[in-house]
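This part of the workshop introduces the protein records we will be handling. Getting from the letters to the tokens is the skill we practise here. An example says more than a description, so a record of this kind follows:
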Amino acid sequence: MNIKLYYAPTTCALVSWILLTEVEEAFNTIPINLKKNEHKTLDYLKINPRHKVPTLVVNGEALSENIAINQWINRAHPNARILPSDPWDELQAISMLSWFSSGIHPHLTRIHNPSMVNSIPNSGADVIKCAVIAIEECLYIASNILSDKPYFFSNFSAVDAHFFWCCRRALQFDIELQTYANVFLHYERILARESVQKLIAFEKAVISRFADD
């Protein structure tokens, strides 16, 4: 099986990278330099017309969006329990993943680039302020869900990997996680995983390579 993952540093593509590493899948990573608009080249648009990462290509067939990629990984490696085996819990996990993608991720994007959602001059600070408030509400909810559990479900899953990315990005934007004790403990727990440490080392290498290009 020929598997490629199109990935960009610091983006949510790290979720798929971590999960593929967790299940010990053999895959090639194709780094995409967003600052050079490599995601909008004709070659990449043929693979993913929505010009986003991650994109997983399996035997020449492309699949985008973490939620879909997570399900492919789970089906290819059912014993790894990337999603819960219980049908109801699996749906709950997909619900959580959808919340991270639609309820947290867009606010992180607004902090990163407020002009994407509001072109009014000098409005950036207000856009960021509103986004931070929304993210903090989500962190509060997530902290209550986690309670004293090590993971969102009975074992490490795609939900934990995706929430880790949300928290890591929030930290990069100076949002305090320590205020939400369960969230911070979860972040530290996932950060210590071997797959995540491999991702961080890989990311540093890619960023360094991009800086030299």
